[in-house]
Structure formats: C-alpha cells, structure tokens
Amino acid sequence: MTSASLRCLKGWLALACMVAAPAANATLPIQQWQTTSGALVLFVETHDLPMLDLAVDFPAGASRDTADKSGAASLTLGLMRSGAAALGEDEISERLASIGADMSGRFDMDRAGYGLRTLSSVREREEALGLLAAVLQKPTFPQKMFEREQQRTLAGLREAETRPEVLADREFRHLLYGGHPYSRRGSGEAETVAKLRREDLVDFYRRYFTAGDAVVSIIGDLTRAEAGAIAEQLTAGLNRRSQPLPPLPPIAQLATPQVSRIAHPATQAHILIGQPGIKRLDPDYFPLFLGNYVLGGGGFSSRLNDEIRQKRGYAYSTYSYFNPFALEGPFQLAVQTKKATAEEALKVAQDTLARFVAEGPTPQELEAAKQNIIGGFPLRIDSNKKIQDYLAIIGFYRLPLTYLDDFPVQIERVTLEQIKDAWRRRIHPDRMATVVVAGVDSH
Question: Which CATH class is domain 28-235?
C-alpha cells in the first residue's frame, strides 16, 4: 500500500471513529466512572462473544516530546513491553501466545498506550490482564533492549529519508506548525534519537504514564463489577501526578502562504496543501467535515478526484481530510501525480479548493454526502475492537457519551449556508502551506 493510500485510509478511519456507531451505542450504552486512583473508565457490556477488548491510553504521544529529545515518546512506549516486573520480552510474548491473547501499542500525536484482546474466560483473562498490568506499571527498560530499539529506529529513519512521501510529510508539518510540538515526527529525528539514553525513557514514563491521566476503555463479556475490578488492577500501581499536566502551547494560523519544493529523483511527485485545521470539539466540526466529504473525502465522488483524476488524468491519488487532535490538527489536501504534470496538478488542486471555499457544495452534492455518510453507518461497526477504539476516543477527548448517537442527527441538520460560512471563515486558500517533492528542482 502506498503512503498516499495509507493517508487516505487514515482519513476514512478518522471518519469511522467519528461516525461509526450510533446504532450500537443505542443498544450498548456506555457506562463511565473513575477508579480510586483517578483514571477515567468507559465500559460497554456485551455478551455476544466470549471476548474482552480493552485499552489504557495516556497523554503521552509525540507532542509530549521535547525538541532535543524527539523520539523519546515512541521509544518509551515500545520499550515498556521489552521487560516488565521479572519478565523479559520473550516471556511476555510467549505467555500471551499461549492463551491466544494479543497486546499492541497505540501511538499518535496526542496519545500513547496499550490495547489488549483476550478470551473472557477467567484463566485466560487473568493471565492476559496480569501481563498488561506489569507492562503498564512495572516496565524495566532493559539497557540492551534500549540499545537495540535505538539502533533499529535510527536505521528506519535513515531509510525513510529516501522516500519522497516521508520528506513531504515532514516538511508539511514544519510549515504548518513551526516549532510547535505538533511539528514533531512520532519516530523522532536521527540526530535526537542518537542522543537519547535509557534514563530519558524512564523519565518520560514517570512523567506521563500516570494514573490520573489514564483512560481505560473496555468492551466485552464482563459485568460492571468485573470491569471495575479490571480498571483498578490496571491503574492502581501507576505513578501519581503531583502537578497538573502542562497544556500544549496554542497553535497559530498561517499568516502568509508557505511554499517548499524539494528535488527528488522519483518519477512520481508528492504534493501536500493545507493549514492547521480543527480540534476534536470544534464548533465548526460538522459543517467542515461534511463539506470536506464533497471536496476530497468522498473517494471517487469527490470534486478533487473529478477535476484532477477523472477529467485530466493527472493523479494516481488525490484526497483531502481533517485530522482533529486535542489542538488544531492538519487540514490536508494531497495529490500524487507524474513529475511532468506536477505543476498542472498543483494548479488544479489550488483552483478547486479556492472555488469550493468561495461557492461551497451544490444542494445535490450536499444531499448525496449526507446520504452516503449516514447510510454507511451500519458498515462501520462490525467488531468489538472497533467499538473499543471509539470508546477510547470519546474518553480521551472528553466527548459526550451520546456523541456517536448524536452524529447522524448533527450531519442531517447541517445546512448549505452553514457549510459555506464555516469554510469561508476557517479555510484560507491564500494562506496555505504547500509542499512539492519531486515536482521541480529545489529553490
């Protein structure tokens, strides 16, 4: 799968996370409480399958890295499973495999944590939960494992420097966010990762993997009492924070257009256009989201696809999406095309965006977008694991427990004028960041 395809998939996953489960939430109500250590818990009880899906997330994503230690957040999360309590990495893996359980890390700009899937039967469940509790509360960060992962990360960073999509994404973040923590890559930079020490990871863990900041999301074949005991087991031994978590600095909108052209020997050009977009609870979320479905989020039916790919044959791939975080995540428009058509494709993309901001969608486009989004709900929730992902987002970003139920109602209520107004106020085609890799020589 290409990088563009992955980014497009992220856009669809973002859609799924926001809209996928209204029917399920109505029939599987979300229960919420706090543990004695202050962790927030969201729980959905369902006995359809003898399974348990859960996760524990912390505000320990890439944005919590410092500029000089970028990459520490990702390495910290990865090393937690490389040794915990008296267990080594191999023993943890073997014991999970013996009971058919799966434990995996979760990491993005805002969040870091671990998810677990296991049978709900007592023996398997207790074994799996004991392993997860050890990873969360008693990681040992073995020096040899740290050195191995550090070198593995450095090798990956060196290889990534050869890929045009990686260069485009890194430059795009820099133009959008400057020195803000949202400009940092999750993997870090080669020069910062090379300087990290084991003690940096221990310090990061102690600082950010704390009980009061934890969000526990659970769905499965459990009672409320069993879920409560599990949440206590997973969070009771976590560190306590003595002071509130420091807020991230605010994000400034771009004052002028920012353009970067990077030469690359690839025959394919990678084009990114965008600006800081919206937060998770942005008041303009629904008009912007619904409008973007028409612009570039609706796949083959989108305007970008019609103008750039269908009419002119310029693009292998083109799309746009909003990626909301705790602060303003990126609004991004992307095009992949032949190097020879990069400038023409860029111009069409810019013109299509400017025209959409000025005019908005047609009534027919708006109605079709509403039907597609609302009608697609039943297809976007087909496993407990997906529901658990939605619970984690609702809990971490403190969304209303009725958010998923409310979503189709909010989509249906959006008017054409609301979309036009939000896009004119919030999206600025004359102040975009633009990155072209392989399109032309650098200057």
Answer: alpha beta
The predicted-structure confidence for 224-276, as pLDDT tens digits, reads as follows 999 999 999 999 999 999 888 999 999 999 999 999 999 999 889 999 999 99
pLDDT digits (tens, 9 = 90+) for 64-111: 999 999 999 999 999 999 999 999 999 999 999 999 999 999 999 999
**Which residue, 2, 144, 126, is CA-closest to 52?**
126
* Cα-based distances in Å from 6 to 1, 2, 13, 170, 204: 7, 6, 10, 16, 29
Which SS3 state, helix, strand or coil, does residue 54 take?
Answer: strand
Phi-psi region of 178 (alpha: psi -120 to 50; beta: other; left: phi over 0): left
Identify the burial level of 153 via C-beta atoms within 10 angstroms of its C-beta, where 0-12 means exposed, 13-18 middle and 19 or more buried: buried
Q: Which of 79, 258, 59 is nearest to 177 (CA)?
A: 258
Indicate the domain borders of the chain: 28-235, 258-437
415 phi, psi to nearest 5 deg: -100, 165
Q: 322: how many CB neighbours lie within 10 A of its CB?
A: 25
Tokens matching residue 213: 């900041």
β pairing state of 40-45 and 215-220: parallel
Rounded to two decimals, what is the model's pTM?
0.88
**Residue-averaged pLDDT of the chain:** 90
For 350-375, how does the pLDDT look when each residue is reduced to its tens digit (9 = 90+)?
999 999 999 999 999 999 999 998 88
Q: What is the DSSP letter of 69?
A: G
Phi then psi for 56, rounded to 5 degrees? -125, 120
The pLDDT of residue 420 is above 70: yes
- Which residue in 335, 223, 209 sits closest to 274, CA to CA? 335
Instruction: Give the pLDDT score at 138.
Output: 97
Residues 386 and 5: their CA atoms lie apart, in Å, by: 20
- Tell the CATH topology of 258-437: Cytochrome Bc1 Complex; Chain A, domain 1 (3.30.830)
Please report, for residues 169, 207, 274, 295, 421, the alpha-carbon distance to residue 350 in angstroms, rounded to integers and kept in the order given.
Answer: 18, 43, 10, 12, 19
